[in-house]
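Quarterly update from the structural biology core.
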Amino acid sequence: MPPLDDRPRSFLGSLARLSAEATHDAFVNEVLETFGRFDPPNGELSHRWTLDLHGICADGATEEEAICNWRRLARRQLLQDAPAQINTASDHIGYLPASAHS
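Predicted structure, tokenized:
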């Protein structure tokens, strides 16, 4: 298991080659393992899905949109924290090269 402060970076990097279904499963598992939240719309309060994971909160009209928005916000946050460790030029979803994991 990666150090606690590296877990968001490792999780984001692990998503690079997953199918849409596997990505959804990975998010559900990560939410459960890290006590995050992935809340469906609550008809009276909200019509949007909310995803709060690793201190990054995103929402969307669908589960998929919430996941995409979370990934975008996570890449932005991680780039601000350590820009040299994320190679956004090689992959539009922020794939981490193998050297970043060592």
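Residues 63-81 form the longest helix (19 residues).
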